[in-house]
Amino acid sequence: MAAAALSLTMLSGCGGGPLGVLPGGKLSGDPAAVPGNWDAAGEYGFMQLETDPSAPYSVNIAYTVIDGVVYVNAGDTETQWVKNMDSDPRVLIGLDGAIYPLRAERVTASAEIARFGKVWTSQSSFHRDPAGLDQAWVYRLVPR
After folding, report:
1. Which among 11, 105, 16 has a CA at the least distance from the CA of 58?
2. What is the H or E stretch that residue 62 is in?
3. Most buried by CB count within 10 Å: which residue of 91, 101, 126, 140?
4. Is the pLDDT reported for residue 96 higher than 90?
5. Residue 9 in domain
6. SS3 string of 86-138?
7. Looking at the domain assignment, is residue 1 inside a domain?
8. CB 11 within 8 A of CB 19
9. What are the CA-CA distances from residue 111 to residues 7, 9, 58, 119, 128 (Å)?
10. Which of 44, 106, 108 is nearest to 81 (CA)?
């Protein structure tokens, strides 16, 4: 019982962003200008994504860069962060200690989803191709 209370105290004291798979709140970091091209971030990796500016909700998430544009993917799961972005597309991403203000645009064109899916599945054998899903929540993150 004491260990559980200590764990909860430690987690609540961490403040800010997500911790592993647990969502968090407001991200912290140095505000940075949004680059015109995200190729310097690499073809893929992990970042923090903050949604819902009125009640910040953040997650650690995989990203993919295609032709200088950064994408995130929830597959066929309408997660909390997806619901938040559908309500308010303003997001922040945390990458290498910097915070970037962006806007999430849901990708609905089948050709763009197929193109993303080809790159996405080449990055890991655990990635499912969103082009084969009944519904997919794929987003491109663009300057506000």
Report:
1. 16
2. strand 57-66
3. 91
4. yes
5. no
6. HHCCEEEEEECCEEEEEEEEECCCHHHHHHHHHHHHHHCCCCCCHHHCCCCCE
7. no
8. yes
9. 46, 47, 29, 13, 16
10. 106
Scan for tokens 């993303």, then name that residue.
Answer: 116
Note down the domain range covering 83. 24-143
Average pLDDT score over the chain: 88
Number of domains in the chain: 1
Query: Is residue 80 a contact partner of residue 86, using CB atoms and an 8 Å limit?
Result: no
Identify the pLDDT of residue 34: 97
Which residues are bridge partners to 31 per DSSP?
99
Residues 17, 25 contacting (CB under 8 angstroms): yes
> CA–CA separation, 117 vs 138, rounded Å?
9
Residue that the structure tokens 């663009």 belong to: 142
Strand, helix or coil for residue 61: strand
Look at the block and give the residue holding tokens 């609540």.
12
Residue 66 contacts residue 138 (beta carbons within 8 Å)? no
How many angstroms separate the CA atoms of 120 and 126, rounded? Answer: 10
In this structure, what token pair is assigned to residue 91? Answer: 């997001």
Does position 75 have pLDDT exceeding 60, yes or no?
yes
Structure tokens given for 98: 């910097």
